[in-house]
Amino acid sequence: MNILVRLWRFLTGWWRRNPTLITAHRVGELPATLQPGKLYVEGEGSHIWSVALLCPCGCGHALQMNMLADTHPRWQLTIHEDATTTLYPSVWRQVGCRSHFFLRRGRVEWCAAVR
User: Fold this and answer.
1) For 34-72, what is the HEC assignment?
2) Three-class SS state of 29
3) Which of 37, 48, 87, 91 has the CB geometry, 3.0–4.6 Å to 20, for a possible disulfide?
4) Which contiguous run of DSSP H or E holds residue 23?
């Protein structure tokens, strides 16, 4: 039964995939309304405090990840020359839509559900 559930989630996740590349946009403060396809990089100069984006599943929730070195959990960000982004580790919502994905070179790579 577990394999069928995982297969179903994989197949239904296929249609949730966003073909639009997610690109970095530096901001001093997060805007009140986030736009799809944009990863907002909040900070000053080379100091990045957090990043935020709309959940790529389409649920409309804003996701915000901490980038400060002395806190936990924290993510690492790479901004490539074409403004696409790689975010490490994965983003995993524990409530709501329960999306779990990696962001690599601006593309959302969905993770299989683990129970």
Assistant:
1) CCCCEEEEEEECCEEEEEEEECCCCCCCEEEEECCCCCC
2) coil
3) 37
4) strand 23-27
What range defines the domain where residue 31 resides?
2-110
Q: How far is CA 88 from the centre of its chain?
A: 9
Q: Which amino acid is at 81?
A: E
Domain count, the chain: 1
Write the burial class of residue 86 (CB in 10 Å: 0-12 exposed, 13-18 middle, 19+ buried).
middle
Q: Which residues of the chain have pLDDT under 50?
A: 18, 115
Q: Find out whether 32 and 22 touch, Cβ atoms under 8 Å.
A: no
Residue 115 lies in a domain: no
List, for residues 67-76, the tens digit of each pLDDT value: 998 888 999 9
Question: In this predicted structure, what is the pLDDT of residue 44?
Answer: 87
